[in-house]
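Internal tracking record. Fields below are filled automatically when a chain is submitted to the structure queue. Please do not edit lines marked as system-generated. If the sequence contains nonstandard residues, flag them in the REMARKS field before resubmitting.
Queue: standard
Priority: normal
Entity type: single polypeptide chain
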Amino acid sequence: MKTSWLVIALLLLPLLPVPNNEFENQATFFEISNWQENPRIGQYASKLVYNFVEPTESIVCLLNGEIDFVPRWYPNGASDSLLYQEMLENQLIETSEYGVNSLAGFFFNCEQYPYNLTEFRRALAHAINKTSVNANNHPVAKTPFDSPVPINSMFCMEDELPYHYYHADVIKAEQLLNSVGITDYDHDGYRESPDGEEILIEVIAIEYSEGYNSSVQVLREAATSLGFHFSSEVIDSTLLVRCPYQYLDSVRYYNVSFGSRSIEWLRPLFSGVSEAPYRNPSRFTNETLNRWLESMDSASAYEEARKAAFNAQLILQEQCPMIRIFQDYYVSAHRTDYFQGFLESRIEGFNSFWNPYHCRLIDDLGGPYGGSLRIGVVNSSLDPTLSYTNDASPLNLLYDTVARMNIDGRYEPWLVQDILVETHEVNTAVPEGHIRYTCILPERRKIDGHIVGQNWTDGHTLTSEDIVSTYFYFKQNNDSWFHRELGRLHSVVALTERIARIEFETEAYWNIETLAHIPILPSHILGIQLDYWSRWSTGELEISLEETMTSHGPYILTEYAEGEFVELTFNPDYFLATCRCTIWQPTFRIGPENGPPEDILMGDGTTGNWLEWDLLTTIPHRYAIYVDGSCIDSGLWDGRKIAFNIDDLEIGSHNVTVWVSSLHFLKNTDSVNIEVIMLSDYLVRQSILFMIGFSIGPIIALVVFFKVIVPIENISAGKNKRAGSERA
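SYSTEM-GENERATED OUTPUT FOLLOWS
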């Protein structure tokens, strides 16, 4: 009996389907752009938890694994030095140093002798050993520095200056002093002016001036090495404001911090004469410098502004109206055992918007999506009308800006899809001396039945009116960080729902700083509830979170304990989020057969057997294929068909599962059960199915004919008869 069945199977073999080999050389992995290197793709962490802790305590928590990320820490003192060393030795912690955005140094009164002599000022600069400033055992190296522009500026020309004053050159200094007649006439070990009067270098510093002690020490050593008397005094800041003339003969030590990355401050600091504090304290005047500073201020293009800034720094390097001693640094650090993909910014190190937005859970823990990134920060306000948003603060993830500084330090559109920049030279409709930014919001579009666009978390649509209202609000609000920056704002108007035009009364390139730092706020709240964010800031929670904290950024506020922590959660409706997409249910193909079979039977040794999944998503991301629970293939997925050859499956029962994901979080899986049997048994079964189909087919046809077709014809005939009789 078995032999007869085998003979029948062999006779019917030519009638069986021929295996299809069209997928045999088809790749199952398609290269796409490297998502790990694209910072615009973000929102990987499910939650961001900002723990409010003191800076040093945050480092202790980082070492203990209680915090994942510390954006900014300024180590100071012996205990911090030990913590810093421990952090450097910890293999699970990565650190980065980035410059403090400030200027600290000695400003000479260039109207008084001997500081009015360039040779005297340069002699002091040559005599200072700036490299010795680290002898105070500061845990983070203070780099010797000459340029007044901080290293964290794209306009800092420190590395391009033709020479430096890093190391003490006493011989050069003595030559300069001798050339202007300042020497030791009476051979008492101290230098005198040509009229025989000994020279006292007196330094005045305001209380709590950061870096003063280490700076004044190296200046003291330089002054005494050249034979000058030296003294220093720390005074109350109010004295300098009330009695500026009292200290005209002094060398003033200033430490000025800057909120933005603009270097517009160079002009008031070194151009013209003023008695106002922090406005040209050196009282230095130089017409060439003034022209370059004016050119820097009025330049509308990056390269033009950079050229002017470079030439201004060359003059300041040569003339020495002030001497800067070092560049100070912050430290940012993060653990590597939970999250990865931290981006080190050219300007801000790890302390930028990009890391909370872009870092992701490591793959071994189920990444890249999910997890709670724990961030250690100093307690900060949740009021965007009062707080600056240029770092990794919670506000930066709640409210977007029109533009952002990228990790290379240049500005690019963010909230808007494009920014058209026009001056009078480009468009005569723009007044001379003005610059106009036309900001175009992305067009709302429909994806898989969903309207995708920019919305506030309370459901209101974000439009150009929000940009207009925000700029008007900050211009009128004297208490805001941005009131001063908007002093040069000429007009802001909504041309259409998607287009806003912002115009400034100067062509300065630095206006882009304003676009990059002002958080756009909801106009429907600004117009009716001006104390909205101040109530939040003070913890007056009268209604639910969703009703009170309307925002728009990549994360939304979901929990807040005043003075303790802030919890932000992934915003699925963010305009750059890609969760609004659908993965269609897969269809399958095995060999030449189509359809979505749940179970497949195949013979051992047959070839050309493929599973093919047809899936669709708006933004595909990754795929994986599992055979009997083990992952045997995975990678990036570009949205095309995924094909998997099953020829090598051994005899027995198997399960093949495909797993795909899209940005963000949307995943889908589908499984196929496959039974592999001996080829002879498989052929027998296929033959039986064929014979059954061959035998039953005619019977089914007859049944259909007599049970369905004939009755229909009879009914139609009856209807026609009745219709005919009625007409008769």
